[in-house]
């Protein structure tokens, strides 16, 4: 399965690289720019670090985050195994004249850092396409690449949202017997005093949720797109030496997905407003399709 999944993922992103570029640029009207939201969170975390110099973006897509970091005067490396994505990255880098941005077509599992370490490593829209065993391998690879005190900023499809989406994903969780446990974790997060306490509560409440063999259509034509809850992922990262520092929500849903499809401009406007003003508000996390964890390598 992992090999087939990786091949499917590479084929998909090679085929739709130009579409991904349009999504990231905000060129699609009445659509939530989830790529920009996740990248913006990574830039927020970067701004919180003392004197960062070097950034690595894993699964960099069309390179928007890498280029933004280079514009801020830092060295930035983007890696992606989809060749068409990297070709777009290189064209954008040349057009912008950003010598501090570098791109490489390679899987993270084959990447050679050549002795470099990084103050921030970002992985957005990546872990949904790798197996549980590969995720463990990823954690082991990332930790030594981070400079002491550095941040790993990792995004995940939010499985807790399935309990609130009121659609086929909710029905899937009901059939798996996972809904009650998910509600307990969502409640623990919402009732916490702050973001750090929310992560601790989520880790304590999270269960080993059964993974579905199949899931409803997601818009990306691969066999499996994995989801995690904040507590699951935070606990896994902590077990590999990282210290969870903060959690952010992205692609907030004030409307259930079925209603959002009928009112795309309203949905996009509400989602972008919540992102601008309240993206670090843990109480809204369960209604976000995506969450981003900021975890640190101890100094």
TrEMBL record:
Membrane-spanning regions, if any? none
Q: List the CDD domains.
A: AdoMet_MTases
Which Gene Ontology terms describe the biological processes this protein takes part in? methylation
Q: Its domain of life?
A: Bacteria
Q: Which InterPro entries did the record assign? A: Methyltransf_25 (IPR041698), SAM-dependent_MTases_sf (IPR029063)
Question: What GO molecular function annotation could you give as one example from this UniProt entry?
Answer: methyltransferase activity
Q: Key word Nucleus present in the record? A: no
Which part of the chain is the Methyltransferase domain? Answer: 55-150
Tagged with keyword Transferase: yes
List UniProt keywords, sorted A-Z.
Methyltransferase, Transferase
Question: Which PANTHER family does the record associate with it?
Answer: METHYLTRANSFERASE
Q: What is this protein called?
A: Class I SAM-dependent methyltransferase
Which species expresses this protein natively? Vineibacter terrae
């Amino acid at each position: 399965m992992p090999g087939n999944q990786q091949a499917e993922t590479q084929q998909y992103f090679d085929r739709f690289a130009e579409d991904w570029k349009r999504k990231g640029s905000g060129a699609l009207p009445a659509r939530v720019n989830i790529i920009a939201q996740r990248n913006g969170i990574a830039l927020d975390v970067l701004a919180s670090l003392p004197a960062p110099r070097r950034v690595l973006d894993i699964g960099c897509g069309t390179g928007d985050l890498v280029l933004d970091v280079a514009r801020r005067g830092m060295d930035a490396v983007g890696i992606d195994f989809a060749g068409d994505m990297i070709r777009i990255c290189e064209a954008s880098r040349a057009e912008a004249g950003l010598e501090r941005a570098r791109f490489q077509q390679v899987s993270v599992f084959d990447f050679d850092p050549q002795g470099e370490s990084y103050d921030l490593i970002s992985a957005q829209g990546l872990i949904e396409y790798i197996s549980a065993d590969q995720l463990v391998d990823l954690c082991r690879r990332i930790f030594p690449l981070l400079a002491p005190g550095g941040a790993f900023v990792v995004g995940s499809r939010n499985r807790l949202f399935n309990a609130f989406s009121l659609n086929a994903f909710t029905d899937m969780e009901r059939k798996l017997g996972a809904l009650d446990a998910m509600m307990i974790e969502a409640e623990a997060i919402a009732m916490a005093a702050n973001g750090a306490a929310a992560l601790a509560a989520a880790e304590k409440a999270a269960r080993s949720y059964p993974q579905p063999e199949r899931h409803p259509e997601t818009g990306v034509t691969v066999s499996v797109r994995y989801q995690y809850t904040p507590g699951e992922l935070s606990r896994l990262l902590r077990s590999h030496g990282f210290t969870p520092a903060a959690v952010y929500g992205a692609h907030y849903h004030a409307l259930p997905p079925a209603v959002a499809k009928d009112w795309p401009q309203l949905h996009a406007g509400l989602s972008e407003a919540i992102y601008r003003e309240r993206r670090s508000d843990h109480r809204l996390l369960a209604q976000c399709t995506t969450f981003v964890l900021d975890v640190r390598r101890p100094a």
